[in-house]
Design brief:
The chain is an alpha+beta fold and 196 residues long. Helix content is 17%, strand content 30%. It has one domain.
């Protein structure tokens, strides 16, 4: 299984990648979306069955869900207001870059990054965390071995809010029914002590 494709976040007229959402929260839970059921037709890079696109317009958070059934078969939800309360990390790539977005420290490989805070869907806090990107580049150039040891600590250095330590929002969404994922491939989920 490949990494889940990225969700996007339009902010200040630019398309950012959503890197993570505050611990224990999901932006998608605060919009009136119909979350697609995982089916046999999804592609390996979209195992949740959907991708999300968010935007901030006049401080209001909005969202659209793109359901991925097959590679060339997509359905879009209506654009809805999202009344999320919490924080998220977004990062901006160069247009042709395809950096990873599956780990919190991945934002260190982007051009710039922000931590945004919302209350009931209204943007009320912006934390520029791009300083960590610059420090990461300097550390990598000075001492590559030390850089890899310190990477996650550096990624958290300027954050104001709490994020999971070992997994991003993509890996903790409760709507993903793993039994359905495995059964769609004709398999059953392994028990805790069972080997595949």
């Amino acid at each position: 299984m490949t990494m889940q494709s990225r969700d996007y976040f339009y902010y200040k007229g630019q398309r950012f990648t959503l890197i993570d959402v505050e611990k224990g929260k999901q932006i998608i839970d605060y919009g009136r979306f119909n979350i697609p059921k995982v089916s046999r037709g999804f592609c390996s890079s979209c195992w949740r069955g959907y991708e999300a696109v968010y935007s901030v317009e006049k401080k209001q958070l909005w969202g659209i869900i793109k359901e991925r059934i097959f590679l060339d078969d997509e359905k879009y939800s209506n654009k809805v207001p999202v009344y999320f309360t919490g924080s998220c990390i977004i990062a901006l790539d160069d247009e042709n870059e395809m950096n990873n977005s599956d780990f919190l420290e991945a934002y260190l490989d982007y051009k710039c990054a922000y931590e945004l805070h919302f209350t009931r869907g209204i943007l009320n806090g912006i934390n520029d965390i791009s300083k960590a990107i610059q420090e990461a580049k300097e550390l990598e150039n000075a001492n590559r071995d030390e850089y890899f040891k310190e990477r996650e600590l550096l990624a958290r250095k300027y954050l104001k809010y709490n994020y999971d330590e070992h997994k991003t929002y993509k890996w903790r969404y409760p709507a993903v029914k793993w039994e359905k994922v495995f059964s769609s491939f004709g398999e059953s989920r392994p028990k805790k002590n069972e080997q595949r």
